[in-house]
Write a structure and sequence with these properties.
10 helices; 207 residues; mainly alpha; single chain
C-alpha cells in the first residue's frame, strides 16, 4: 500500500509541476514542448495530449519487448489528469518574478515527484521504457539514446508552437541531479536498479 500511495502522489505532483511550468511561460520540459505543440494544432487539452502520447509510446514497447508495470499504466493517465487539473486551478504568472518562482518551483517539484514515483519501484514511465528498450536493442548508451529522443521531440514540439525557452535549458541541466538525490530518499526496498539511476543521471525527464 505504501508503494501505491507514493506512486499516485508522485504522479499527481508531477502533473502539478507541468502546470506550474506552463503557467510560467518561460519554457517547458522537452516532452512537454512536444505535448503543447500537438495540443495547439490538434485542439485537445494538454493533459489529454499527454495521455494520448503516453498510450502511443506504450504501443512502441511491443516490438521492443518491454513489459509495463502498474506504475507504467498509472503514469499514462495520472500525469495528464494532474496537468489538466493544475492548469484549471493555477492562473498565468502576472509578473516576471512570479513566473520565475513558478518555473523554479515546477522544476524542483518535478524532480521530487519523479523520484517519488520511480522510487516506488512499480514500473517505469512509457517514455523511459522506450528509452531503455532502445538502449537494449541498439547497444548504444543511455545518454546517447535519451538525448537523441529528447532533441527530436523538442524540435518537433517547437516547430509546432510549443514553448521552448530558458526554462527548458534549466530543466535539462537540473533535473538529473534532483531526481538522483530524490531516488536516494524515496527508493523503497532497493527496487530501483542501477539503470534507473543512470537514467536520472543523464538529465532525463522521468516519464
Amino acid at each position: 500500500m505504501g508503494r501505491l500511495i507514493q506512486l499516485f502522489l508522485g504522479l499527481a505532483l508531477y502533473g502539478v509541476s507541468i502546470g506550474l511550468m506552463v503557467r510560467s511561460d518561460l519554457g517547458l520540459t522537452p516532452w512537454d514542448v512536444f505535448h503543447q505543440g500537438l495540443s495547439e494544432h490538434i485542439g485537445l487539452g494538454l493533459g489529454t495530449i499527454i495521455i494520448v502520447v503516453g498510450v502511443a509510446v506504450l504501443l512502441l514497447w511491443i516490438p521492443l519487448r518491454q513489459r509495463p508495470g502498474i506504475g507504467t499504466i498509472a503514469n499514462v493517465f495520472l500525469i495528464g489528469i494532474g496537468a489538466d487539473v493544475s492548469l484549471w486551478l493555477i492562473p498565468s504568472a502576472q509578473s516576471l518574478a512570479l513566473a520565475w518562482i513558478m518555473l523554479l518551483g515546477g522544476i524542483i517539484l518535478n524532480g521530487v515527484a519523479g523520484g517519488a514515483y520511480i522510487g516506488a519501484g512499480l514500473g517505469p514511465g512509457p517514455r523511459d521504457g522506450l528509452m531503455t528498450g532502445l538502449v537494449k536493442r541498439t547497444g548504444k548508451s543511455v545518454r546517447l539514446i535519451r538525448t537523441g529522443i529528447e532533441l527530436l521531440v523538442v524540435a518537433i514540439g517547437w516547430a509546432l508552437g510549443g514553448t521552448l525557452g530558458l526554462g527548458t535549458l534549466i530543466y535539462a541541466l537540473a533535473i538529473g541531479p534532483i531526481v538522483h538525490r530524490m531516488l536516494r530518499l524515496f527508493t523503497i526496498a532497493d527496487k530501483v536498479s542501477e539503470p534507473a539511476l543512470a537514467t536520472a543521471d543523464c538529465c532525463a525527464q522521468p516519464q
